[in-house]
Design a protein that fits this description.
CATH topology of the domain at 1-16 and 437-601: Nuclear Transport Factor 2, Chain: A
Number of strands: 27
Number of helices: 16
Distance between the termini: 14 Å
Helix content: 25-40%
Structural class: alpha+beta
CATH class of the domain at 1-16 and 437-601: Alpha Beta
Radius of gyration: 27 Å
Shape: globular
Length: 601
């Protein structure tokens, strides 16, 4: 990413924006025709400034009305209110970066706020590019059966399009987006199907497992709610085709519908443009086609499909792991674990764990309301110092929040005791790694286990483990989108091209302290990986550059972005992360951080 610019900015006082302020007279601002401006007066400076900003917003409203069409059912007053509302999505954050000229001071304060028309047009163009990029991202997710991602990107593109002054002109691949995006969203809804699998009845309720497909393929991800007879449920995040629902024991499982999540308002708050648009919208744009009827009469067919899917998964894993021929002792342990989890008698299986392994097992059982799902069979593989058992599917529910589906991997030591466990990597990611012909089985194995342990460490809040795997001099860079330039900064930042993305560099100590605070304030953290691309360093050593799309969920926050890790896996059970970067979006060329950005090939 050659267009990343590394800047060292040391600011001792004053706003950065003033460094670049143009020296203009009041007459030049008002008469040149190059600026939009607003004038304010008041007994205090703040009052005058606020009035000037308000006047500038009015000027923006007048200028932007040219592009908006008026709906036939709107009155003139309603039209003006709608336009002013949309203008706020451009101005409320951006106006902090407008120029200010003080004409006179208190007690008769007079202020002019102004902005170049070219800057306003630039904001329009930035939004148009973002709309198109969201459509591109949506189509990519659509093709990869990542239903949640596809709906999220399509809907966000539509929201931004509705705030764009010239929405009738925005096209992509010859398609007018005003009609193309709703068609794509409805197409996703129409491609979804859900079938009932295993049903487990308890005293007052029944837990129902679902098999969810998109265009005939198991969904990689899909978020939904459902009506349980009294109220709509919390959001359930289906994964690898698996979903769940819980209803009353009296429910005959007829006419059950899943309601697809498509707005993703919480995640949208991370993008200031989207946050402003969502704030000004009266309600979510309705898509009444977002319901998926659950089919009840194909249970046996679902079971057969899940078994076939499990066999496909094993085929990919055999490209990575060496299969164990005699798994009798290990299978018996897994059966005992199943019994303990169902009965919540965890101490009964403590004998099968090392001390550290049992501590992790306890953390897992306290990761929300943990419950087993139907298992199509375990897969046992040998390692240099033990055995791995893959694929114990489970559901984890957090009251008042989300439900996640995860498969658990158990790793036994040479004494046949479980020394560690982890969340299984998404099947798509495992398949991508297994197809790497140039790497040895061991290299693939180590990579998969590293990623599984890494994502699990965040979920189970393994602060000590994460402290251990980051090198003392690790380069840790975290990007964020900003609408207002920093007022003061005492550390290195990187600006991504002309975009308002700032990358802050942290020391290992700083990052770990931030992580500790993050663990303390969240009930749960869940990471989901997609779109992984892994390259080996040309040095010949077992150093890998991992580029991967990461969806981050927690009880207080959620985001989606791109992670890059430069990790030394020379010693398989002692990985060392030398570089960790995170950025909210790709650059204008579609690239993210890689080895070349750090002169490390």
């Amino acid at each position: 990413m050659k267009k990343f610019l590394l800047l060292l900015i040391i600011v001792f006082g004053g706003a950065i924006e003033n460094i670049f302020a143009q020296t203009l007279t009041v007459a030049e601002i008002k008469s040149s025709g190059e600026y939009l401006w607003g004038e304010g007066k008041g007994s205090t400076f703040n009052k005058a400034d606020k009035e000037a900003l308000s006047a500038l917003v009015s000027q923006l409203s007048v200028s932007i009305q040219v592009g908006f069409e008026q709906y036939s059912e709107e009155t003139e007053e309603q039209y003006k209110e709608r336009v002013q509302s949309i203008v706020k999505t451009y101005s409320s954050a951006k106006l902090n970066n407008t120029q200010r000229l003080v004409i006179s001071d208190e007690p008769n304060a007079e202020v002019i706020r102004y902005i170049a028309k070219s800057e306003v047009n630039k904001q329009y163009e930035n939004r148009r590019r973002k709309i198109v990029q969201y459509v591109i991202d949506g189509e990519k997710a659509d093709n990869n059966v990542q239903v949640s991602d596809a709906l999220r990107f399509y809907y966000w593109a539509l929201c931004l399009l509705n705030s764009y002054p010239y929405s009738d002109t925005v096209t992509y691949n010859g398609n007018l987006l005003k009609t193309y995006i709703p068609t794509k969203i409805n197409g996703v809804f129409n491609g979804l199907a859900a079938r009932i699998g295993n049903i487990e009845k308890e005293e007052n309720k029944q837990s129902v497992e679902l098999f969810i497909t998109y265009k005939g393929k198991p969904v990689q991800n899909y978020d939904y709610t459902y009506f349980d007879g009294i109220n709509y449920s919390n959001i359930v995040s289906a994964k690898d085709g698996r979903g769940v629902l819980e209803v009353s024991a009296m429910n005959e499982l007829k006419d059950i519908r899943l309601r697809s999540e498509y707005a993703f308002e919480n995640e949208a708050m991370l993008d200031d443009d989207l946050a402003q648009v969502f704030e000004e919208m009266d309600e979510v744009i309705p898509f009444h086609n977002n319901k998926v009827t659950v089919e009840k009469d194909k249970v046996e067919e679902v079971k057969e499909t899940l078994v076939q899917k499990h066999e496909e998964q094993k085929t990919n894993e055999k490209e990575v792991f060496e299969q164990l021929t005699d798994n009798g002792d290990y299978l018996n342990v897994m059966k005992e674990l199943e019994k303990a989890i169902k009965q919540k008698t965890y101490t009964n299986v403590k004998q099968y764990f090392t001390e550290e392994g049992y501590a992790m097992f306890n953390s897992l059982m306290n990761y929300g309301n943990a419950k087993l799902l139907t298992n199509e069979g375990y897969s046992f593989y040998t390692t240099d110092d033990g055995v791995i058992c893959r694929s114990m599917p489970m559901r984890f529910s957090f009251k008042g929040n989300k439900t996640f589906i995860e498969s658990i991997v158990y790793e036994f030591d040479q004494d046949k005791k479980i020394k560690t466990l982890s969340f299984q990597l998404e099947q798509e990611a495992v398949a991508d790694i297994s197809k790497q012909d140039r790497w040895s089985k061991k290299a693939k194995h180590v990579l998969i286990r590293f990623l599984e342990n890494y994502k699990t460490a965040y979920a189970l809040e393994r602060h000590d483990y994460l402290t251990q795997i980051f090198s003392e001099d690790a380069l840790i860079i975290v990007g964020s989108i900003v609408e207002k330039k920093p007022q003061a900064l005492d550390k290195q930042i990187m600006l991504l091209n002309e975009k308002d993305i700032v990358f802050n560099r942290y020391s290992k100590t700083e990052y770990m302290k931030n992580l500790e605070r993050c663990f303390a304030r969240n009930e749960f953290i869940n990471l989901r990986f997609t779109e992984n691309e892994i390259k080996k360093a040309s040095s010949g050593k077992e150093v890998y550059g991992i580029q991967i799309k990461q969806d981050y969920f927690s009880s207080t926050y959620g985001d989606s972005g791109y992670l890059f890790l430069a990790v030394d896996l020379e010693v398989a059970d002692k990985p060392v992360i030398h570089v960790r970067t995170w950025q909210p979006e790709r650059d204008e060329e579609g690239k993210i951080f890689s080895f070349v950005d750090f002169n490390w090939e």
